[in-house]
Amino acid sequence: MSYHDPVLLKESIELLAVQRDGIYVDATFGGGGHSRAILEQLGPKGRLLGFDQDEDARANQPDDPRFTFVAGNFRHLKRFLRLHGVQEIDGLLADLGVSSHQFDTAERGFSYRFEAELDMRMNRSGGQMASDILNTYDPGSLQKLFSEFGEVRNARTLAYRIVEVRTKKPFRTIGDLVTLADALAKGQRMRYLSQVFQALRMEVNEEVVVLDELMQGAMEVLKPDGRLVVIAYHSIEDRIVKNFLKTGNIKGEVQSDFYGHIYRPFDLVTKKAVVASEEEVARNPRARSAKMRAGTRKK
Predict the structure, then answer these.
(1) pLDDT number for residue 136
(2) Could you tell me the pTM of the whole model?
(3) Count of structural domains within the chain
(4) Domain limits at 188?
(5) Phi, psi (5° rounding) for residue 101?
């Protein structure tokens, strides 16, 4: 099994509109599929920086002098670019979410299909695990994260059951959580578990905050006419990307100057989200939920 089958590969590279001598960022390097496609479009003077905080991704980096692997979170985009002598870029591509490799590696704790520790950290060098959240958050905080990040319909009931259960036995493994969730799923087991696990993963990795920081950083380092291309996998991420491309902030709040001129930092390249073809979904089921949007940085 490959590390990760890149989603919307042809379409994303077309939207990125790679210039031969340009400087580009693959903010979610993973298995390197998108990066290799970008390198194929670059000339000898072009440059590509691939970001990934997952130590497993390092082994996938191409042997190419035009490529630089950045072992860090894309939330620190500007700082890492400066460290590598880059002040501005011609384009950035981000394929959000969890890679196939991470989902299929049992000990990472991302999938309810396996039995392992409830980890879910994309960067295992530090930070709280999913089990820490289940064992320490108060009912209100648990309800909020399950409702907002997972759109779990009975988030309040789930939160209070978690607090009740952990007083007898702390949560440690995937099985501990699945056993509880199964009792509350009410006939929609896979959908329910997916929502619960998504919410926890997003909290563990601060995905909303991190995505906001990436978008802000990209807006600041993109050259005029530079391209920003983002692939999202659930409605929360897609809404953030859509709002940011339209208004320059993740809430979609329209801002204007003293004279009433509306601030729009990007020209939309995609009027609506680009989705995978039926052929791609048949080949790679993960592509089913993918939505891609792109914008050009205004001058």
Answers:
(1) 98
(2) 0.90
(3) 2
(4) 124-204
(5) -60, -45
